Amino acid sequence: MSKKYSLLLTAILFSYTAFCQQNFADKIYYNAVVYTCDPANAWVKAIAVKDDKIIYAGNDYAQYKSTSTKLIDLHQQLVLPGFVDSHVHFLSSGANLAGVDLRYTKTKKVFIQLLKDYAATLSPGRWITGGNWDHEQWGGDLPTKEMIDSITGDHPVAISRLDGHMILANSLALKMPGIDNTTASPDGGTIVKDEAGNPTGILKDNAQDIVFDIIPQPSAQQLDEIFLRAQQHALSLGVTQVDDMGSYGGYPEIETYRRAEKNSTLKMRIYSFVPLATWQKLYDYVQANGKGDDWIKWGGLKGFADGSLGSTTAWFYKPYLDQPNSSGLMVTDTAVMRQRILSADSVHLQVAIHAIGDRANDFILSCFEEAEMRDGNMDQRFRIEHAQHLSGDALTKFAALQVFPSMQPYHAIDDGRWAYKRLDQDRLSRTYAFRTLLKIKAC
Q: What's the helix, strand, coil split of the chain in %, to 5?
């Protein structure tokens, strides 16, 4: 054989060997019940993994097995794709994991005792935040500062209702920014007062910011610790990707995730949103840094149209049944909201707006429609977060405008249990309209 053909044969054999090695799996999980989400191949028994990527899902994995491949028998355990949660407040959730958990307290007595026990574990003067309480668990009466003043001592308290649209503050926390009987409610918020005109401790929507603005923000090191706690919890539940709607202003979150990626501690994918009001800052940030990569990306803006059903601040056309003098409120001035949406869209940033009530949803849809009519683009991927209570027109407009209703099924078993107290049958008939929206979109 000539030297020329010998070299050619050697090159072919080397290429073939390299090709085979590239297709051998590092690990093969077999004897499993694997759901693939592929309608043509929905259920299989094995998956092959190489370099942390799935290279095969099926039943006959022999061609991906080599002498160095690790075989893992799953003994018929169920394997699912990683879950994606499209709406979380990731870092505040991580912070809450180390705080007091009041979500499932069903009586005021237990609520007070848990808060008292938690306060006793803290160093003097430390803020108590988090909480995630739900007054509907004990019948619907809102808690008051008098319930907690005597058991929280020198700890300022600002604990949130589980929807994030209402906090309970103790007297110390109210005193620090100067909230008293002369303080007026801000636009887009409510300072709840008793019959004598004194603050009860309940602050709704934009009124929360009066207290939030004086709470010390966590350091970069603390944010890193909070992130690792949140990530560990998410991964333990099979959640491998989240859309983070922000907790500390959006930009600290982005930098936290970028540090995690740089330090090789980022183990899940994150799309990080920032406040809609900062659209110009985000545009400049994108110009300087791009929009991220496959693991951490940014370029989305989150705004608030109204409040929530649980806080009776969701914006409706008609009043609440249990608060006939109120139909909710618009958290952001309508003219300001419209201009921010149009401005952000003009520089090709994705816009997601929180809207719960029927009037809020209709208004935001009208803003999105104006943006589409202006530039003729039907692919902005506009989102309405929650889209909880809709008018008849809104049901069809989502599909017509190609707006994504970013809905959370959990809410149907959360405030859905007592929505009848707030809304009449007509509005209830278009509440949590998951199937209708899917059907209209499919058509």
A: 40, 25, 35
The span from the CA of 91 to the CA of 95, in Å, is 6
CATH code, 157: 3.10.310.70
Nearest to 364 by CA among 386, 341, 345: 341
Q: Is the dihedral of CA 80, 82, 88, 91 positive or negative?
A: positive
| Residue 347 within a domain | yes
Question: 125-182 pLDDT, tens per residue?
Answer: 999 998 999 999 998 999 999 999 999 989 999 999 988 899 999 999 999 999 999 9
> Count of alpha carbons within 13 Å of 286, Cβ hemisphere only?
20
Q: What is the pLDDT of residues 341-392, one digit of tens each?
A: 999 999 999 999 999 999 999 999 999 999 999 877 767 899 999 999 999 9
d(CA 433, CA 416): 12
184 and 230 both lie in a single domain: no
> Does pTM surpass 0.90?
no
Q: Is residue 113 part of a domain?
A: yes
Give 363's DSSP letter: H
Average pLDDT, the chain: 92
Which residue among 166, 192, 212 closes a domain? 212
Burial class of residue 428 in the structure, from the number of CB atoms within 10 Å of its CB (0-12 exposed, 13-18 middle, 19+ buried): middle
pLDDT band at 417 (very low <50, low <70, confident <90, very high): confident
Joined together, the tokens standing for residue 400 give 């017509």
Q: What is the mean pLDDT of residues 50-68?
A: 93
Note whether residue 11 is domain-resident. no
- Provide the 8-state DSSP code for 135: G
How far is 55 from 78, CA to CA, in rounded Å? 19
The token duo for 284 is: 């400049």
Domain boundary among 47, 81, 115: 81
Number of domains observed in the structure of the chain: 3
Of residues 161, 190, 158, 184, the one with CA closest to residue 171: 158
Domain residues for the domain of 351 are 220-442
